[in-house]
Batch of 2 targets.
Target 1
Amino acid sequence: MSFTIVLQTNASENNRLDKTVTDIITLEGVLRDESSIMNPSVLVQASPSTLAICNYATIGAFGRKYFVTNIQAYRGALTRVDMKCDVLSSFASEIRACQGIVYKQENLWNLYLDDGTFKVYQNPILGSYVFPHGFNTMQFVLAVSGRP
Amino acid sequence: MARPSPLIMAVGVYRFTNQDDELRVLFVPRFSGSERLPTTQTNYTIESATLALGEQFDHTATFFCRSSTDYTRMVDGGFTNVILLSDIDGEIWTCENDALIITFDSRGYTITKSNVPDFSLRMGESTPITFPSDTRNPEWIEGIVGYYGGIGGVWSDGTFFLIRYPKNLLREEGFTKLWSNTQPFNPPNDPYAQGGTTGDDESEPTGGDGEFDNEEAWIDPPALPSLSALASGLITLYNPTNAQLQALGDFMWSDLFDLDTFKKLFSDPMSAILGLSIVPVQPELFGDATVVLGNVNTGVTMPMISSQYVTVDCGSVTVQEYWGGYLDYAPYTKVEIALPYVGIKTLDTDDVMNRTLHVVYHIDIMSGGMVVYISSNDTIRYMFTGQGGASIPITGNDWTNVVHSALSVATSIGLGVATGGIGAGAGGAISATALAGAGAVVGGVANQVIGSKPKIERSGSLAGNGGLLGIQTPFLLITRPRQAVPSGQNSFTGYPAFITRTLSSVSGFTQVTGVHLINMTCTEEEKTEIETLLREGVIL
């Protein structure tokens, strides 16, 4: 079975849903025997040197995007490209439609939750606050038996 | 009466916490003419379907469930959904003859059963709550609704009702329209949304049914005592100046002091003087009077004290957050208060943070006894005792007592010792701590830093003479943690959130602790990987 594979360079973090990718080359590839569409191993007509900067791929026929895990010269002008499904990018819209309990977030937070996120130094901040009034006099008190 | 149209319509959408968000409707028989229901059949197939609000389903079969066992089977082992249908375009119909109204909650637990032959109800009205035993229907099981067929709806208080028809009497005749335009109802899907519910037995979810009453009463310091030693007339308090005391002493040691005139109440003239002390307050006065010692007019005039008790208001201080987060509270931030004539006391940070503290002393100038009231937002949170009078010895016995007391105070002041920090472990608390999932980093987790610090007593008792030598104005000592936050920490690891969100509504680094991955087209293995990655943190 042959299909179109777009080999790309991914500049984004692996755990980012929407990746910034640059197309390098579009090829026709065939799936190696007993290769799954989640972790496909594809044979393409290209030299390893051409594919050296490719770390990402899109196979529209499989509806998925992939990380390139290995590029290996096969035989003749064939190169084998091993890939692993990038589940975050492949199913980004479906993931975004899901609901969850957000535990940590970059832009939405409640700093009154104590989860040990923040580190502190050993030298604390010392402060003092004086009340506005106190005892400002000294008086004698003489206690005498009887009435004046 | 017009014959009902053969439609069954969902009138509400329900969501239940331990089911998926799917509305399941149990269909009750659609009445069709004057047919009778068979009485011998025990197993019937109950149909169910998923309806959206307003969606109609034309159901023509006649069926009913004869036993609670059948009923239980058809709800797939979970607690049931609501029978929330009306028969004719939003109108509820019921039978007037020997009908039973069953009210039950979203778990299917029977709340009431009432045999009401004749009734006329409107949406939101309830029947009398009685629960008679029904020996004619032994298949009724407490907590499980078994029904023979009927139609139902929703009361406005959120409970559901089922109008059960008698056996074999499912006929058009006798049906009475109760009301029109049933309203959709969305019951809570979280017990805490309405204060929670309690289960009927230990196996059921309990709790969450607190009153949620956060009333904080104003508790002011009490009024000064209304009865004092001065009211007895057997004792007089004066507030002399230095010169007046010296004049009294001059008189007593002079030849003018007539011992013959001195009333034979005392063996020693000095016994007429009960005591002399220094107090740190200005007593209330009501005019001058000549001092009389045992009927001997000394000729020395002194102001008389009118009240044994005095109040000293030290004012208020508002303690504000520094970081605006959990580090401002216990156990990370510590608050102590230095009180004149008491010493330094530790306050619970949670009592004072973001609140206004008010300190008031009530003083007995005769004994020197004091009570300090510390209010937090107008509610007394702390009460301490102190000693605010310094006795001046005027006899040999007095001198011994005063010196002895002073020595005791000095000993207690010297009792400030260092104790171990809370939870401090040998060598563990001060070492660097690794962030979860990252390498070792500098800085300690806040609670470990707190635990590594020894607890120090900053003072002992500052009573009596010691109090006169001590501070005269209260002050707060606050020890706050110094936060170590790398630039852009929230973009790398996020800040604490703990909120429920649809993931499309947030952006940036996001880490979940629970997620519902529904309507996914990926494989099971991919779904597991997605959930793992979401729990580790992704960038949306």
Target 2
Amino acid sequence: MATRSSADPDRMQELLAGQGYLADRGLAIAVAVAVAIERPLLLEGDAGVGKTELASALAAVRSTELIRLQCYEGLDATHALYDWNYARQMLHVRMAEASDAGELSVAEVFGPDFLLARPLLRALQYSGEERPVLLIDELDRADDEFEAYLLELLADFQVTIPEIGTVRAKRRPIVVITSNRTRELHDALKRRCLYHWLEHPSPAREAEILAVRVPGLAPELATEATEFVAALRDLELMKVPGVAETIDWVRGLRALGRERLDREAAADTLGLLLKNREDVEMVRERDLERLVAERGDD
Amino acid sequence: MTELERACEELAGFAASLRRAGVEVSYPQIEMAAEALISGGSGDREFSRQALRSALTCSPEEGEIFDRVWAGARPGSACPRPPDEIGPRSRSGSRAAGTEGAAATGSAGPDDAASGGEKAGAAHSPRERLRHLDFGLYGPEEERLARTVLRTLAGRLPERVSRRRRISDRQVRLDLGRTLRRSIRTGGDPVDPVWSRPDRRPRTVVFLVDVSGSMQPYAAPMLVLAHAFSQLSREVEVFTFGTRLTHMSRNALTRSSRSAWSEAIGHEVPDWAGGTRIGAALSAYSRGWGRCGMSRGAVIVIFSDGWERGSAGEIETAMGGIHRLARRVFWLNPLAGRPGYEPLAGGMAAALPHVDDFLPAASIADLETFTLELARVRRPAPGSPAARERPRPRSPR
């Protein structure tokens, strides 16, 4: 397999930052290489660390379309690849009968007019100049059967639709697969991809992200907030807050006019950060004092 | 040798080092790694490291092994043996500690177990004797026979309703797509409707097996059983813990279960000087896998004697978290069947309120009882958090 282009991770990091996505060097290298050697990129990590957002940012950087396939249990070829618009076909047949328009050919009834192209087929049929970004989101939510199907597709990037023929991708899409690791993906699939595990960002990095996403944020509040969240992530929570939650929380704090993080502010706004009643209660009772005290406030 | 050939050899050598350290690198991955390196041109060392890491590993655990191998040697040159490989093999010390542990919880020693383990008046066929024989009394012949029997014990997995639908005769819901497709034969009239009903698939079962010194030789048969279950379906996950938690991949599990009885299990160093840090291991499981979704609606099977070196509070918190997410929590304890045993030791007592089914696991008969209970898991245990959250059943149509 010939290498199409060379990987420039520094440039990739810059371009992603330009889109508001701050990637660390390891991720930038993985992305740049995946794009250069035309292999799928598998991103695993907790919910909310920015896997989906990377695909969006990447599509924006490449000025191309983002084609998104959201996976769920029971997802099959009908929902992922294509389906026939049966109702329309029925109507077409009836109308032809009613108007005595003569013999209908199978090719007419099973033609492109009646084909509903779902994300995977759209990615294959994409006719733009740039390679599209195909995001297969939360693949761990789909089941084994779908993974096997996907494996085949990723190998050849072509599908055969019995009524139409073989559809081949003009240019290989840039494939980004994300997984929350609720279950282990098939070995065969994982080993066909370039892999990167995304951690929650460090407090310093998260503060940088906040600076981009929440303009006008006071640096002291950013530091206090991110250190608070980092400490929170170490607790036995049922649902660990991700970057999106941090951003919402900080926006909430500002909306309430808080410029510093004190115990009261934290207690009032915990619901923006923790999306689970038991987590909120646990933090309120046990740890709030300690966490805020450690941040050096009253 | 050209530059390219030398580079290829280095890469192949590095991949071999990774394999020796436990990362199952496949050949296509090495190809991918080569392409990745070429794409970077004369990238710096950091680029090479990250690019190889992305291509050759596919989990954070493998990533850690990669980091160690990379740090330990320049790629290609003779790689020093990573510290985590097969530890010292010792069985005798662990047996002694097992006795100590039993005594500490106030139960009878293994001698009493021997007489209690064989049911008085039971059928005298060798098979029956084997079924009730305590694992601690096994010799090589018993191990060989038991291995076969245990494999057959893995029968059915608990099931749950899945989101897929399958064709059925019962008229539950119309499968519109298939009905219309079939109707094309009859000129567009849906004469012959196709029905579907929700499909069923195996419920996730997670085994958390304590393989520390105090648990041998009980852990070995448990691993053989867990391996047998894992062959049934991909929804079965197996973890071992002793000094730390390890997720067993399919291949590792096969290797482990083959050698389980006669060697130390995997690379865990039998920690027979003291107990295990059960609470820490369970927390690590929850944090790394359970909370992310593996525990949700799953059946969790913990196999341990509950002899905890850490604090009881740690076990309590960890078990509480697990119990909230899981459908059913089993705790298998090899000491539980012994006459006079009561779960009074701090660790076991702390965990018990969060356990739905507390079962003994000292003989084949015990494990057989467990597999029957496992297959029967459908409704959440009464009073458990899963039961409280259950929606009210729909009224029959």
